[in-house]
């Protein structure tokens, strides 16, 4: 730490902060403080925020001792202006007399100027004002009052460290009511049980070291790394591996200040319950990590992360957790055993009691629609239509089972287990499990034909229904996850290479609805294609494809075969990335601009056929011949979906186009020559636009 550039250390010490709020709170603390530093003209070298269950901390290095002197000038009215204007200026500048102003000749007259010299302030004074202001503005998702206090904070506050250059800042935070003020200090406490006594600190290095000595690992990333490494080591000792769970790791790191990993045993009598149920129960209620055997199956072991060290090496903690887990898993096993007494098909009627959406009917009605649509899609993609219909019928039945009622995360997955147990076709069972997929960009995408058909039908039904009642996503709001559904459909189609007509599918899904008050099918299909164009840009951008090229292909209209569209876009990207393509694009834009300008000037279009008899120069004859040849070559290639070949045919236009612009004067004096040459330029545009709307391409 530099002598001239002191360090700021802040810590808010409180009761336990909910794990899900800690990382965001650390970021908010850093953002709010640094924004207020900047607003006060204070620069710094680095800022680092930390969070543990009981504290938020921020260290900022390289702050100056004082804020800089500032000279502020404010231009006023012209000398001799009306008294009212002068009075208004003086008031806005905080002055009482024109004697406090300067007069300057600006070259446009003599004006009054108010000049204020603001001396810099001690940084410590500014910080003492910033910290309470930040605390007052803190955006906790949920907060509380306690005792007689009127101030809200996430949990009751106990102390505030505020050190600048090793000295305690003079200041406090008023809790309101009879709670009084929390005066800034230099003391904190360590682990609640292992090192509960208070201690003082002098700077961040001292703070971090003393916390570690007091059984607190301050750095969240370090806690996560330790939890993971210790859990993996325990698993290895058992000949097992840790089941990856980043979300649980993140949460557990927010529950402990001194992580101690311990391994426990699951009673063998629960191991016939599906592993997804066991894992969900353990992670949701107990925050335990699951362990896997060499075959990748769940082992009868778990890892619990304690927040303390015990004399018996954690034996009592493990025993207590095993006891609690037995009670939890007894419930899960009871639900599993009960659910298997009723067939999935017998549960379908109960879906009539669940509302899908007030304007779109019940889940039972959705199932009926999805059956019809899944069968149609299955026939289109060569899947077993009967199996798709059966899977669609049973797809939502597990929603009314006890296990899914307790653990909604395993819907679909449980349907597969029940279906297999009832002797259903394995393809049907798999489709039940996979029909919600893919749930996001990192989720796996179904590839089995029956699964694909049902997954597509389910998502299409949802999208069409909500668009038909005008419940579309707006801005950042998407309460029905329609963007996710569209991205799921795009992935299902592209990753499986499905040649399906989206517009027809939208209309088929629309026709399956029997409720009233719907927008017309054509309008819904048009709106959805525009929506899909936007979603496709997002998907392709992640693959390195430019959004303007997607626009250029969509602008042709009538393209709703996503596989064909993607092939065209990728060929176009390769083409415009080549030297010939880039030059031809520039020539296209030049030709288009000339034609547009002349059409506007003349008040008529030049999109008629070129008259070969009026072509006088070799260059325009060559261009006409090249355009005719390119068009003849490209048409059958486009029909065969050979977009790379099409682009190669267009690339041969570069030489004749360059020669034309070098040698030919478009705006010839003879009116008929001029018109014919403009029609020739228009033909360049038309030839290229058969492949994509080149006017949409940037560059």
Automatic annotation (TrEMBL):
Reactions listed under catalytic activity: tRNA(Gly) + glycine + ATP = glycyl-tRNA(Gly) + AMP + diphosphate
Entry keyword set: Aminoacyl-tRNA synthetase, ATP-binding, Cytoplasm, Ligase, Nucleotide-binding, Protein biosynthesis
Residue intervals of the DALR anticodon binding domain: 585-690
Biological processes, Gene Ontology terms: arginyl-tRNA aminoacylation; glycyl-tRNA aminoacylation
Keyword ATP-binding found: yes
Broad class of where this protein is predominantly found: cytoplasm
Gene Ontology CC entries for this record: cytosol
GO MF annotation: an example: ATP binding
Keyword Transferase in annotation: no
NCBIfam families: glyS (TIGR00211)
HAMAP family assigned: Gly_tRNA_synth_beta
Protein name as annotated: Glycine--tRNA ligase beta subunit
Lineage: Bacteria, Pseudomonadati, Pseudomonadota, Alphaproteobacteria, Rhodospirillales
Gene from which this protein is expressed: glyS
């Amino acid at each position: 730490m530099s002598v001239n550039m002191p360090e700021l250390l802040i810590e808010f010490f409180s009761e336990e902060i909910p794990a899900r709020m800690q990382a965001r709170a650390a970021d908010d603390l850093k953002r709010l403080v640094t924004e207020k530093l900047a607003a006060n003209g204070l620069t710094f070298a680095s800022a680092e925020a930390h969070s543990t269950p009981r504290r938020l901390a921020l260290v900022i290095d390289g702050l100056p001792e004082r804020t800089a002197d500032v000279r502020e000038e404010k231009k006023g009215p012209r000398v001799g202006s009306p008294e009212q204007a002068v009075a208004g200026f003086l008031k806005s500048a905080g002055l009482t007399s024109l004697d406090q102003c300067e007069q300057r000749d600006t070259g446009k007259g003599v004006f009054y100027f108010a000049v204020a010299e603001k001396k810099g302030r001690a940084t410590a004074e500014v910080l003492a004002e910033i910290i309470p202001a930040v605390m007052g503005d803190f955006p906790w998702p949920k907060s509380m009052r306690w005792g007689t206090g009127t101030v809200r904070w996430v949990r009751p506050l106990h102390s505030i460290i505020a050190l600048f250059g090793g000295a305690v800042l003079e200041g406090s935070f008023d809790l309101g009511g009879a709670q009084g003020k929390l005066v800034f200090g230099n003391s904190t406490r360590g682990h609640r049980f292992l090192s509960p006594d208070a201690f003082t600190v002098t700077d961040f290095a001292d703070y971090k070291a003393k916390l570690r000595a007091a059984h607190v690992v301050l750095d969240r990333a370090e806690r996560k790394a330790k939890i993971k490494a210790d859990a993996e080591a325990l698993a290895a000792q058992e000949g097992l591996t840790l089941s990856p769970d980043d979300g649980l790791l993140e949460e557990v790191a927010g529950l402990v200040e001194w992580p101690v990993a311990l391994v426990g045993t699951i009673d063998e009598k629960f191991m016939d319950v599906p592993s997804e149920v066991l894992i969900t129960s353990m992670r949701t209620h107990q925050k335990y990590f699951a362990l896997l055997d060499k075959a990748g199956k769940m082992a009868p072991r778990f890892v619990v992360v304690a927040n303390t060290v015990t004399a018996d090496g954690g034996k009592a903690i493990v025993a207590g957790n095993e006891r609690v887990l037995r009670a939890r898993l007894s419930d899960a096993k009871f639900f599993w055993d009960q659910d298997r007494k009723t067939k999935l098909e017998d549960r379908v009627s109960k879906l009539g009691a669940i509302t899908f959406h007030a304007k779109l009917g019940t889940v039972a009605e959705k199932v009926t629609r999805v059956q019809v649509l899944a069968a149609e899609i299955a026939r289109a993609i060569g899947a077993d239509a009967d199996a798709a219909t059966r899977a669609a019928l049973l797809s939502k039945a597990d929603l009314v089972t006890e296990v899914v009622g307790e653990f909604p995360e395993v819907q679909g997955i449980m349907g597969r287990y029940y279906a297999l147990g009832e002797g259903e076709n394995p393809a049907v069972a798999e489709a039940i499990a996979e029909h919600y997929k893919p749930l996001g960009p990192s989720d796996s995408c179904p590839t089995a034909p029956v699964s694909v058909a049902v997954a597509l039908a389910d998502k299409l039904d949802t999208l069409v229904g909500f668009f038909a009642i005008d419940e579309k996503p707006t801005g950042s709001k998407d309460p029905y996850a329609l963007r996710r559904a569209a991205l799921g459909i795009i992935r299902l189609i592209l990753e499986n290479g499905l040649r399906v007509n989206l517009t027809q599918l939208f209309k088929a899904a629309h026709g399956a609805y029997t409720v009233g008050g719907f927008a017309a099918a054509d309008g819904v299909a048009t709106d959805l294609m525009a929506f899909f164009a936007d979603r496709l840009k997002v998907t392709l951008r992640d693959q390195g494809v430019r959004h303007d090229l997607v626009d250029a292909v969509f602008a042709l209209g009538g393209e709703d075969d996503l596989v064909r569209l993607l092939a065209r876009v990728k060929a176009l990207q390769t083409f415009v990335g080549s030297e010939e393509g880039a030059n031809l694009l520039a020539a296209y834009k030049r030709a288009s601009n000339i034609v547009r300008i002349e059409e506007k000037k003349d008040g008529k279009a030049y999109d008629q056929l070129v008259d070969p008899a009026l072509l006088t120069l070799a260059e325009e004859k060559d261009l006409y011949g090249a355009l005719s040849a390119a068009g003849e070559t490209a048409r059958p290639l486009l029909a065969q979906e050979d977009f790379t070949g099409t682009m190669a045919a267009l690339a041969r236009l570069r030489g004749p186009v360059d020669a034309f612009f070098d040698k030919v004067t478009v705006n010839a004096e003879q009116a008929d020559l001029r018109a014919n040459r403009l029609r020739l330029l228009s033909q360049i545009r038309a030839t290229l636009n058969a492949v994509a709307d080149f006017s949409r391409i940037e560059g």
